[in-house]
Amino acid sequence: MKHTISVVVENKFGVLARIAGLFSARGYNISSLAVSETLDLATSCMTIVVEAEDERILEQIKKQLNKLVDVITVTDFTKKEHADRELVLVKINYTLKDKHALQALLEKYSAKIVQHKSDSAIIEAAGGQQQIKQLLQGLEAFGVKELIRTGRIAMAY
Amino acid sequence: MTGAEILIESLRREGIEVIFGYPGGQVLPLFDKLYDAQMRFILTRHEQAAAHAADGYSRATGRMGVCLATSGPGATNLTTGIATAYMDSIPMIAITGQVKTHLIGNDAFQEADVTGITRPITKHNYLVKDAKDLARIVREAFHVASTGRPGPVLIDIPVDVQQKDVEFVWPEEVNIRGYKPNYYGHPGQIKKAAKLIASCKKPILYVGGGVITSDASQALKELAEKMNAPVTWTLMGIGCFPSTHELSLGMLGMHGTAYANHAIMESDLIIAVGARFDDRVTGRIDAFAPYAKVIHIDIDPSSISKNIKVNIPIVGDAKNVLGQLLEELTKVPETSDWLKTLESWKKKSPLSYKAEGKLKPQYVIEQIDEATGSEAIITTEVGQNQMWAAQWYKYSHPRTFLSSGGLGTMGFGFPAAMGAKVGCPERIVFDIAGDGSIQMNVQELATCVCNKIHVKVAILNNGYLGMVRQWQELFYKKRYSHTCISGPDFVKLAESYGAVGIRVTKKEEVRPAIEKAIATENTVFIDFHIEPEENVFPMVPAGEAINRMIEGLA
User: Fold this and answer.
1) DSSP3 helix / strand / coil % (chain B, rounded to 5)
2) B529: helix, strand or coil
3) Residue of B316, B464, B456, B317 whose CA lies nearest to B378
4) Which residue in A156, B196, B318, B479 has the fewest CB atoms around it within 10 Å?
5) Cα distance from A80 to chain B (closest Cα, Å)?
6) Domain B361-529 has CATH 3.40.50.970
7) A/B interface, count of CB pairs below 8 Å
8) Which residues 6+ apart lie within 8 Å of A32 measured at CB?
9) Which pLDDT score is estimated for B300?
């Protein structure tokens, strides 16, 4: 099962390496990672999505994160009311004859075209996991040439 | 003040009187200041030994050990010692030189990414990029290394930072917002634990190095006596409870006593204090202690429920939590039947060895024990020598058995003994070594002789890398692949360094040799030629349940 964890850390060099090292040393794979500064410029927030087979591994991950001196707080969103979003850019095959079909799909998922040329377009979409998944399925009909995702970010209520 | 002066002043303010280390190109400004500093510097003959010596000093005294090396190879040589301290939660400060700030990452001469290399083997580490940060970093490093679950902290200081002139500002206090260890157990958990203790019938206290770190021996003894519960300890816990106490079961685990292993398997309540259910203790994890509920007291939350399921976790300092528990515990369990059973197991299967044949290592250790009145500081190398030293010496005080438990580092014992002797000059310090291990840091004979650090080394010389040979004998059809090892003439070797060497081949020579070594004002190597194929028993084969012992309880 995938879990979303957000980690507030000191905004210093080397901290990302400590976090990454903690995962790699135990053979845990990071599914996605988003890092940026927060309101307090002395801290950064890392949103990490990780695959953990069981509760014990997830607990260990959280405890190990907390153990790092540069880690200030660890929040596990698994059982918490929260909002999560991800931004994706998708390059698809696109010609003007597909315009209506595409626009209907984009409207449904609040996505938009950022750029287009004669044979392709870059679509931007932001949303929850389900929404993004469905949009990507819809876009497959056009032919997806490239996909890039920011990784999930999350915020508790 | 220059960065170098700031470092020395900061160490002085932290109470440091001795540094173990080795000079080099990127620590020249620092060594120039050390020339005038009121600080003892012990020049080892290898950086690894400097790290082990600082570690041994820390283990024996409870005060911070400091080691120092140059960049690149100096720093990488420290790493085995740092990892050793890390695995055993030993507070230590490692200081390394680094190439000039603007050269970092340029593959400069003697450059290595030392903070990168040591990240997984330190509790925390620092690369100092500005001399203005140095005093604060030293203060933080000492705080982090010595509090919570202790561990080594490394400070990497580029040579230009050592030279830079800045104002010295000593921070009055340390405040790291991400680092706030929890020292007292949650009162609710303490209540639950007391309730569980009152209702058990076959309790066992399973205790480890955390008891020694937190100076909780007295509280442990009080709890054991109040509950009338037996005590078993890990390798790291040796000395935290008197081995001659009637409630003592000795060490448990792979080479533990048969009765300790059976006791934990039969128990209905394990109270784990400052121990982490290591694989050498639990054996096959799914077969471990099937009837027991577990109360786990540890200052490190990540140690709890890591290997086994815990019923009542209590995060806190062992001494504090045991104190809380003693206060809360009004009703104690009835354990007389349980103790009677254990007593019968003790009688039936004591630790034993066959006295006939060639000189026995167990006998040598018994004689060291008697000759030193069980009051020496014992360090060990790793392997059979370590296990015999754990089994046959009668420890009764914390900080008297110094051994690389977690990492299992050969070559640890001799430099650790050196560090212990520097910290406790009035004590007799014996390194119980093998002929393999001693050769891994034997160059420290020079350091000992030069600095008049009079440690005694008992080499249990069997001509083998004994523990590996034992496994090959038992599990690999006696195919002794590269475990037959030759050594030098240890007597001549010791003498060539200006130390004293004694060879012992017969039983009757053992005691006089030990007495002579103790009486000699010098470093002494005693080369005991022991039974070559003597094994350490009892033994739990790897991956077996811990009551399935070879030569254990019948």
Assistant:
1) 40, 15, 40
2) strand
3) B456
4) B479
5) 22
6) yes
7) 35
8) A47, A48, A49, A86, A149, A151, A152
9) 96
Which class is domain B187-348? alpha beta
Q: Which residues of A touch B (CB under 8 A)?
A: 9-10, 13-14, 17-18, 21, 25, 56, 59-60, 63-64, 66-72
Tell me the torsion sign for CA atoms B298, B339, B353, B506. Answer: positive
Across the interface, of B120, B123, B178, the residue whose CB is closest to A21 is B120
Other Cβ atoms closer than 10 A to B43: 14
What is d(CA A35, CA A29) in angstroms, rounded to the nearest whole number?
A: 17
What DSSP character marks residue B196?
A: H
Q: What is the largest CA-CA distance in chain B?
A: 71
Chain A residues with beta carbon closer than 8 angstroms to that of B116: 17
In chain B, residues with a C-beta closer than 8 Å to the C-beta of A72 are 177-178
Q: Domain residues of chain B, as ranges? A: 3-163, 187-348, 361-529
Query: pTM for the whole thing?
Result: 0.96
Contact A38, A44 (CB under 8 A): yes
Element (H, E) at B325: helix B318-328
Low-confidence ranges of chain B (pLDDT < 50): 553-554
Question: Do B123 and A72 make contact, defined as CB atoms within 8 angstroms?
Answer: no
In CATH, the number for domain A82-156 is: 3.30.70.1150
Instruction: Nearest chain A residue to B150 by CA: give it.
Output: A67
Could A68 and B176 be called an inter-chain contact, meaning their C-beta atoms sit closer than 8 Å?
A: no
Q: How many CA atoms lie within 13 A of B368 on its CB side?
A: 32
Between vectors from CA B433 to CA B429 and to CA B439, what angle results, nearest 5°? 115
CATH topology of domain B3-163: Rossmann fold (3.40.50)
Q: How many helices (H) and strands (E) does chain A have?
A: 4, 9
- Residues from chain B that touch A64, judged by Cβ atoms under 8 A, are 302
Helix (H, G, I), strand (E, B) or coil at B234: coil
pLDDT in tens, A35-85: 999 999 999 999 999 988 888 889 999 999 999 999 999 999 988 999 999
| Residues B82-121 pLDDT 10s | 999 999 999 999 999 999 999 999 999 999 999 999 999 9
For chain A, the C-alpha Rg in angstroms (whole number) is: 18
Among B115, B120, B301, beta carbon nearest to A14: B115
- List strand residue ranges (DSSP E) for B264-376, in order: 269-273, 293-298, 312-315
CATH number of A2-76: 3.30.70.260
Residue of B nearest to A58 (CA): B306
**Contact flag B120-A72 (C-beta cutoff 8 Å):** no
Residue in this structure with the two tokens 């300890």, named with its chain if needed:
B233
CB contact under 8 A, B302 and A67: yes
B153-203 pLDDT, tens digit per residue, is 999 999 999 999 999 999 999 999 999 999 999 999 999 999 999 999 999
CB contact under 8 A, A71 and B119: no
pLDDT of residue B67: 98
CB-CB under 8 Å, B306 with A17? no
Cα of A67 to nearest chain B Cα, Å: 8
The C-alpha atoms of residue B532 and residue B359 are separated, in whole angstroms, by 9
Query: Of B123, B144, B301, which is closest to A63 when you measure between CB atoms?
Result: B301
